[in-house]
Amino acid sequence: MSDTPAQPLDPTALHRDSVVFNALDCTPLAWADETYLGKLAASGVTAINHAVSISQDYDAAAASIVGWQRRLAETDGRVFQAYGLDDVAHAKAEGRVAWFAGFEDSKPVGEDLWRLETLYQLGLRFMGLTYQNRNYAGDGSGESANGGLSRFGRALVMECNRLGVALDLSHTGERSTLEAIEVSDRPVLVTHAGLTHFVDSPRNKSDRVVRELAARGGVFGLAAKSGFLTPDGLTRRPGADVFADNIDYLVELVGIDHVIVGTDVGDERKYSREGMARVRRLYPEIPIVGEDLDLDRIHPEGMGTPADLPRITELLTGRGYSGEDITKVLGGNLTRALAEIWDSGV
Predict the structure, then answer these.
(1) Could you give the C-alpha distances from 270 to 27, 84, 125, in angstroms and in order?
(2) Number of H helices, E strands in the chain
(3) What percent of the chain has pLDDT above 90?
(4) Cut 0.90: pTM above it
């Protein structure tokens, strides 16, 4: 055994050399300008699931994908639409960003399964089952009834398996979440949520959900939202350490192989007091902003823009995680799960 002490990890080099896959972020097309692209470049992200639609109908959601396709065509290939893991590998090798289209709700599918295949052909690769409210598939986490999957919802889960669409349960109610995990033949995702262990909100996930998710090969991404991560997050802006506290708990609960990155930060210019007042009115169960609508407290310190993604690597390095484990969290765990999900693609 060598007496030479191990060299301390360099978080900057580790982040640069890893495949960094952000499992969920969202920025409106109006802010997809050179400033935003610069933040993506500074983040060191290799691939991103970008939510282009939240609870839109079919026509509007399809138009959102096409709108982003047109915008990406203007970026000289720095950010390009991706369709599979080969594109992630190419992005890493070429210093570019593989951009995947995702929805935060299955509302665009309505009750017609054929629509999902059409959206898949447009490039849809991630889809939330619900967004807070009830839809044809099941109950969102804002529904007090906490009903499970509908018959259509079960069929939709199986169709996602067949096509190779990664199913995201971040905004789905407890019972519908557990039933989707059970019904799915492939791993499912929680890309951006918190833990009820820290904040007892219906928007967060219970230990039971996390355990069942992991037992079927799924992965869990923490949202970088103050109110999701700590009980007083809506009244006092926490430091970034609360994010690491949540990761530590996840690792203790289900192991390092089921933890991923899903910040849900987006370009900070998208936030407004009016917009947050609307979110509080429509979705009072989401602990995203306090009564005073203070936008500065939405994210922990040092985690408020897409450019701040390297902060996660710094936090984990500071907590003593190994380079191998950090690489898993940054992208390895998600790519492993996606290999199982997308292997079924048509």
Answers:
(1) 7, 29, 24
(2) 14, 9
(3) 96
(4) yes
